[in-house]
Amino acid sequence: MRKSYNYLKILAIVFNITVFLFWGAFFLEHLISFFDDSGNVPFYYFLIPLFHFIFLISLIIALKWNVTGSILTLLFSLLFFWHAAGKNFYLFFFLSNIGSFIFIYIVLYKRNIFNK
């Protein structure tokens, strides 16, 4: 049974790296709009990129500390997609957190949560 954990962990790592690259490119592409000289920007508009940035950082944290990074990823992707994704919230949230769901499943399965 130990090998199946390794395969699941590798799958979660691949998902996290793929999501990081995809949303990281999106982040860099939209970051330039904050350097425009178009005038004053309300504070609220700084929160969405902040949530997005912490979401990206938590994807990397999940590679080292699986549970902590996964919980942070779930939280900040929820906050980011809630404000930015509109009607695509559920799709973006669940697809972006497949790696986090796998990491959390591995931890719960190792603790025999499902066997009780």
Feature tags:
116 residues, 5 helices, 78% helix, 0% strand
What is the topological layout?
Layout: H1 2-31, H2 44-64, H3 66-84, H4 89-96, H5 98-110
Helix pairs in contact: 1-2, 1-5, 2-3, 3-4, 3-5
Integer tally of domains: 1
The average pLDDT is: 86
Secondary-structure element pattern, one letter each: HHHHH
Helix tally equals: 5
Helix content: over 70%
Number of strands: 0
Strand content: under 5%
Task: Sum up the overall morphology in one term.
Answer: elongated
Structural class: mainly alpha
Main sheet overview: none
Please state the oligomeric state of the protein chains shown.
single chain
Q: Roughly how many Å apart are the termini?
A: 18 Å
What does this structure look like?
The protein is mostly helical and 116 residues long. It has one domain (2-110). It has 5 helices and no strands. Helix 2 (44-64) packs antiparallel against helix 3 (66-84), helix 3 (66-84) runs antiparallel to helix 4 (89-96) and helix 3 runs antiparallel to helix 5 (98-110).
